[in-house]
């Protein structure tokens, strides 16, 4: 199995040089930029910038935009243009819920199918995550944390799940950018613990670790903050009008 997934890896990029490949190139570029946090939710994506860069018509660009829109990565706003999607809270919960349904299956599959070379690749990837954390390179740590989950699905060898999880991890990056900051990404020690359990071929513990890991992410990102109590009119008057009590009452005309 190959080394940790790289956003420049061949399977995420089309061969340049033909007009027919441009929509795929645009799509892959936007996906990679979202995963890297180079494009944040709400960023405008003007069609003419794509047209100028790739030397193609708006019709070609719109093919890519339509695909990105279908995959819930961008949204079209009437009379305003195309923007990187800002997921609402319901969509954010649905994205994480889908990952919680899929990734434990990936882990179970890996316990049975991952080779020693595969596990070594995972170990080396986690080492890279640790290095990014120790260097306080939070953006790189976030990028690698998402790639770790993509590497798991790649090793599992189910192409449908791999494609689905790529979309979910990309959309998860938008959730993190919307509801938290760059520090709210996967913890490298969680990934290391999972790799250790895969090496031990402990399916039950490995699945539990993945479930716990995803639950922690969901809690950190989407926990409800207690609503701030609204002051009463009486407390407002006491705070802002302390001399009011000293004024004689006057009849209301």
Topology:
Elements: H1 22-35, H2 47-54, H3 58-70, E1 74-77, E2 81-84, H4 89-113, H5 116-134, H6 138-156, H7 159-179, H8 188-199, H9 203-222, H10 233-240
Antiparallel strand pairs: 1-2
Helix pairs in contact: 1-3, 1-7, 2-3, 4-6, 4-7, 4-9, 5-6, 5-8, 6-7, 8-9
If you had to describe this structure to a student in words, what would you say it looks like?
It is built from ten helices and two strands, in the order H-H-H-E-E-H-H-H-H-H-H-H. With 253 residues, it is mostly helical. It has two domains: 10-84, Winged helix-like DNA-binding domain superfamily/Winged helix DNA-binding domain (Arc Repressor Mutant, subunit A, Orthogonal Bundle); 89-222, Up-down Bundle (Four Helix Bundle (Hemerythrin (Met), subunit A)). The N and C termini lie far apart (87 Å).
